[in-house]
Amino acid sequence: MFDRYQAGEQAILVHVDFPDDSSREDLQEFKMLVSSAGVSELTVVSGKRNTPHPKYFVGSGKAQEIADAVALYDANVILFNHSLSPSQEKHIEALCQCRVVDRTTLILDIFAQRARTHEGKLQVELAQLRHISSRLIRGWTHLERQKGGIGLRGPGETQLETDRRLLRERMNNILKRLDKVEKQRQQGRRSRTRAEIPTISLVGYTNAGKSTLFNRLTDSDVYAADQLFATLDPTLRKIEVEDVGRVILADTVGFIRHLPHDLVAAFKATLTETREAELLLHVVDISDERRSENIDQVTDVLTEIEAHEVPQLMICNKIDNLHDVEPRIDRDETGMPIRVWLSAQANIGIDLFFQALAERLGRQIVRHSLKIPPAAGKLRGMLYQLNCIADEHFDEQGNCLVDVKLPAREWNRLIKQDKAGLERFIEN
User: Fold this and answer.
1) Is the pLDDT of residue 27 over 90?
2) Are 303 and 264 in contact (CB under 8 A)?
3) What does the H/E/C string look like for 109-122?
4) Any known ligand binding at 294?
5) Residue 251 labeled ligand binder
6) Does the annotation place 209 within a ligand binding site?
7) What SUPFAM superfamilies does the annotation carry (predicted)?
8) 362: annotated binding-site residue?
């Protein structure tokens, strides 16, 4: 159903500058997207407009220029650095006699190429189906079933209606399967919560170095490359952090400007790992001239998936690409680490990262010594259910002396419930 790019395809790139920041795209980033898709760039047709043309997106003169470039270079695809409406795609294809692909479709295709796990493939297919559902009109008029005359009377359903029905059925089927995957993820998160294992999630703009840092921290071999969307499928690994213990580290898909909403919706199950993390490690390519814009874009996506309130530790990566920048930890006025400067590729500053991580997570861990009398055995059972007892012994009077270690939020929840009068048993 979907066109997949094959290595060696020849493309004409189209880029339009708009005065409005919300509509403006980055040409260099678009070229990286094209390269990541395995497409060869022939030439770039660029121009300026205040607003998109309703028929061709670009002006009629620029559209003819694109058609001439297609004929001159013998291109077999036109790639737009913008999102096009179905009618604009149709009109440009009719004029240029060449396949037209917009920015959203290009990103979806890159995701389709990179998906490896069953869940990732389902999520990409769902996003593609949602995108293509608005582009079915007039695509199959030659297969129209509602025709008159003897031998031509069909079941009363047009090919368009058939396609829409099949799309709906397939989308519903995928949603049910993704819902099953989400329940499995929730079960895993509940198990980690019971075991009091905090989860931290790597987030950041695509190609910021998240997977390289992930591999450096976990001694894994997750695919990492200098290209956009090298990582698609989420990966979880355990790491040991001093004074904290085991921590789950999650590597996630990178964000990008104007990330298609279909993708955000399709990857809701995956992004839940980000939303429910104890701490977000916001990885930034500090050597990128557009780092401020990239940070803003990541913040926008985090807001969209309701993860903007999760505490963040910024990782200023790739300092080896800059001159006179040493690894360091930046702190706020209270002394809490807020930024770590390092290079995952060059293995510089990793020790500072673990130091900052221990401080951030350690502040969320509370330790208490409790003296629980025999009559409060129910409280001891609750602590065992939380798996937070670090040490336990009994005195001569039969009191249970326990050392507990648990996240601050769990301790506060116990205090709020206060069913067993927990605070009166605190020894320290």
Assistant:
1) no
2) no
3) HHHHHHCCCHHHHH
4) no
5) yes
6) yes
7) EF-G C-terminal domain-like (SSF54980), P-loop containing nucleoside triphosphate hydrolases (SSF52540)
8) no
